[in-house]
Amino acid sequence: RFSGIDFEIIIIDDGSPDGTQEVAQQLEKIYGSDKILLRPRAKKLGLGTAYIHGMKFATGNFIVIMDADLSHHPKFIPEFIRKQKEGNFDIVSGTRYKGNGGVYGWDLKRKLISRGANFLTQVLLRPGASDLTGSFRLYRKEVLQKLMEKCVSKGYVFQMEMIVRARQMGFTIGEVPISFVDRVYGESKLGGNEIVSFLKGLLTLFATT
Questions:
Q1: Ordered structural domains, the chain, with CATH
Q2: Is 107 helix (H, G, I), strand (E, B) or coil?
Q3: How does it assemble (predicted)?
């Protein structure tokens, strides 16, 4: 609020049973509906469509996308903004795998899966970015719109395709080390189906980019 940067917070909730909407409504009363925009949807329709839905209401030139469960800490947002200004980047991506970035709250299996997925991606796609499966990012609004028109993946592969397509289309990418803290409430699901979907998506991108 004291940064001098004009901002709005758009909250997209897909009918989650965890009280997200009620909390957002309270924040809206405190900070005003010009700063907190709650834009719910009746049911879970996927991350990509949530991006498109949110973009309809975004009035700024840049969009920061983050999880609302505090896995992504807001304290990193000023660093994203500084990085963007420093290099005039089209995208600034939070990275867990560079500098003092890291992951907290995951068991060894989850860490190995994430590292393995990232390593495979680096070898096959050579994307020029160190963390492809994270979703804490800053985009120029028009760049995000162009990427959404090109991306076709769902689920775990979607974030990876966004970076790969960005490189393919000549957009510039900066990185900021972040600490990712696994959610305290609720459960992160990463089962066999998601891993198979990721591998299929990775091979599709390898064949088409």
A1: 1-60 (no CATH), 62-208 (3.90.550.10)
A2: coil
A3: Component of the dolichol-phosphate mannose (DPM) synthase complex.
